[in-house]
Amino acid sequence: MLTPPEMTSASLLLWIVLGITLQLALWLGFGFWRHWGEYRALRAGLLPSEGGAGPQAEVFSGLTEPASATAWNGFRNFRVDHREIEDGTRSICSFYLVPEDRQPLPSFKPGQFLTFRLGIPKADGSGTEQVTRCYSLSDAPQSGHYRVSIKRAPSPPKSDHPPGRSSNFFHDHVQVGTTLQVRAPSGHFTLEPGSSPIVLIAGGIGITPMLSMLNWCQSQQPEREVWLFYGVRNSKETAFAAHLNAIAAANPNVHLRLCFSDPLPEDRLGKDFHHRGRVDVNLFRMELPLKPFHYYICGPTPMMETLVPALDDWGVPDAHIHFEAFGPASIKRRKPVAAVTENAIAVPVSDITVTFAKSGKQAPWSPQSGSLLEFAESQGIAIDSGCRAGGCGTCQTTIRSGEVAYRQAPDYDPEPGTCLMCVCTPKTNVTLEA
Ligand code: FES
């Protein structure tokens, strides 16, 4: 009869060692799996967030090479990883966005914007309504995340579709962990690579695309001469002040000029700010050396409408003046912009009739009427719009009859039988669905 072998003390010890080794391997494997996500986030430059202010902002601002990836179609889900207040009045907040699919992000050109589709609660409490809005990217391309910095509207919006409604929604409802629907970066107001010296002119929240350009230059072309004229009322309203001052202190090619129109009693000229008053051409005459600068401008409508013609009058070539076309600003150039591209069709000068079918309105259009969006608004027809630059698709409208022409190829590809009203004009008599 067979009997089980007797267990010696040596074999017992062997079994104990084997058991401990197995347990150790399981524990290590589980730990590795659990921290793999954190490790990948760290590699991407994203540290775990405490959900608010803190030193992470400087970590995020570290300039790294972006991952290579291609742009996506439609909307992609992003999670808010981090929020950061950027000014003394706490009215500007940066939102750091990471893709929920954790796949690489495409790079973008400094100056481009993101388009958001938001579900904003209706004022009467009867659910939400979909609103599309665009916000400039406020940093150079980074691996793993995008950043937008948004200013809260100063007073409660009065109409149903004011720009401030979506900005306030961001401040009040978009928290760490919120999911947002986002289109890929787009926009033509971009800083192109090159060696020409540049002047960045920002008014208020117009600092955001300028910061993207400045950070990009710091990262990719630190030898390039950059002047930044940043107009705000006082030190409390200056966003990213520490970051801007640090760059200017570290790089002799960067010249920062803070211009306060209404300084606080404690704001010291020459220390906290450089000029009392608004940014204007007289300031450029005093400050800038004689060089073929390219000027990039983004700010509130009055500033844009004053500065752009003033630069024209000063003799700056049209090709050296670049400005952001967000919002209702309608900048009148001394000379028409020669933006007709190779494949574009020239806009005729003869009068044309535009019919808005749903609104039941009809009116003659002329080149002075501007884009179809501007023309519709001048006729009292409300059209939902986002970027007003052909990048987001919000103003896409069906053409019932007739043809339209684009002055430049839009970033957004309109569906067949539709047009982007913000960047096209009628080529013939045209009837639109609006
Ligand atoms: S408003 Fe964005 S494409 Fe017209």
Explain briefly what this protein structure is.
The protein contains eight helices and 19 strands. The chain has helices at 9-43, 56-60, 163-173, 207-220, 241-250, 281-287, 301-314, 372-378, and strands spanning 76-85, 92-99, 113-121, 128-136, 146-151, 179-182, 198-203, 226-232, 254-260, 275-276, 294-298, 321-323, 352-356, 361-365, 396-401, 404-406, 418-420, 424-426, 430-432.
**Cα distance spanning the termini:** 97 Å
From the 3D coordinates, which CATH architecture of the largest domain would you assign? 3-Layer(aba) Sandwich
Major sheet strand order: 4-3-6-1-2-5
CA-atom Rg in angstroms: 27 Å
By CATH reckoning, the class of the largest domain would read Alpha Beta
Low-confidence sequence ranges: 30-67, 334-347
By helix and strand content, what is the structural category?
alpha/beta
The run of helices and strands is HHEEEEEHEEHEHEEHEHEEEHEEEEE
What is the global morphology? globular
- Looking at CATH, the homologous superfamily of the largest domain is Nucleotide-binding domain of ferredoxin-NADP reductase (FNR) module
The major β-sheet equals: 6 strands, antiparallel
